[in-house]
Amino acid sequence: MNTISSKKEFSKIVDRERVRSDRTGREFSLIVFEVSGSKDSQSLLYYLSYILDQRVRCYDQIGRLDKSRLGVLLPETTHEGAHKLAADICSSIIPKALHPIYTIITYPSQWKNLYEDEPPQADRPDAHSDDTGSAEQTIAKSSQSTMSILQEIEMLLPGRTPLWKRFMDIVFSVTGLIVCSPFFLLMTMFIKIVSPGPVFFKQKRVGYRGKPFTCFKFRTMKSDANTSVHSQHFKNLISNGDPLKKLDHKDDRIIPFGVLMRKTGLDELPQLFNVVRGEMSLIGPRPCIPYEAREYRNWQHRRFDSVPGLTGLWQVSGKNRTTFNEMMRYDISYAHKKSLWLDVKILFKTLPAIITQVNE
Question: Which of 114, 122, 245, 257 could form a disulfide with 210 if both were Cys (CB 3.0 to 4.6 A apart)?
Fold first, then answer.
């Protein structure tokens, strides 16, 4: 008989399967059954758990997500295989009016869709109901449901931001914004003088658990700069294993003194607003651009287990002298070892690292 795990236990099981999938390359599927539409949801949930216990394999895992939903983890199961099982489960429930809604998520294919501009597509939330509206409406509901559940499952996994870290972020970022307000004014005037266009550069980045957000920076490039150059440079760094040096020294897209601003990190001070909003932290991996995330291997997505930061373990461990894979290992190591003491050490190492970078 399969044991029905608690929400906490089930999240650990999903994370272990995720690690195994990253290592072996074999996908798995997760079915989420929802019975909240029923007047007697608890009885139906109990009935559903009984049906599941009769139908799933001995190494499949069943767990509660909340009072109205059950999750079923299916190792080495394709999206089509999971859909067949879910439809079979629903057909076993009598009367048909009690059929639960289900959503299927397959790793790694749909997990990676978090970093895309379009939401992931999935099966209909209820494959046995004909009154859910038009086909177009059903697909839209399904996409939203899948994205919502996927992000919720991600939040159950290890790597949540500790309260001490969030407290430190708020205190230091608010203080930094107050202290640096005169500098913000000077930077605004300087950028306006040396280069026509907006003062701030806003760009979509990939944040915690793959959630996109708008990242703020002082603009250091011409407003009409072609960004495809950076995309190709990034792909070259991944493929040839060279140190992660920027193109700044020979980039005519950069405004006067822009290279110095980038080396010292002064252009990133507006990201203190991102820290206040909770999209970033003081310490963490640098937030990447979506097209960079699409180049990642499965195991490299685990750098998103930590909130991106202004500075981090990689930045104080050589940064431009390290390779892409070394950066990934530093970021993933931090995501799973973060502590107050480690954050304090990184903060104290940040200034010496900036001085070293300026002198390179």
Answer: 114
